[in-house]
Amino acid sequence: MATDPTQRSYRAPCPGCGAPVEFRSAQSTHAVCGYCQSTVVRSGDVLQRLGKMAELFDDHSPLQLMASGRITLDGKEVPFTLIGRLQYKTEAGVWTEWSAFLQDGTLASLGEDNGAYVFTRPMEAGRELPEASRFRIGATTAISGKSYSVAFSGSATLISAQGELPKLPPIGQPFDMVELRSADGEVLSIDYGHQPPHLERGRAVLLEDLKLTGLKDESAKDEKGRQFNCPHCGAPVQVQLSTTKSITCGSCASIISLDSGVGGELRSAEQDEPVRPIIPLGSKGQLQGVHWQVVGFQHRMGVEPGDDEHFGWSEYLLFNQKRGFAFLVDAEDGWSMVRPTTGAPQMAASGRSATYLGTTYQLKYSYEAETTYVLGEFYWQVTRGQKTSNRDFASAKGLLSMEQTSNEVTWSSGDKLASDTVAKAFKLEDKKDVLQRDDPGPFVAKSGLGCGTIIIIAIVIIILLILLSNCSGSSGSSGYRSSGGSFGGYSSGGGGHK
Question: Which part of the chain is the DUF4178 domain (predicted)?
Answer without folding.
Answer: 76-203, 281-417
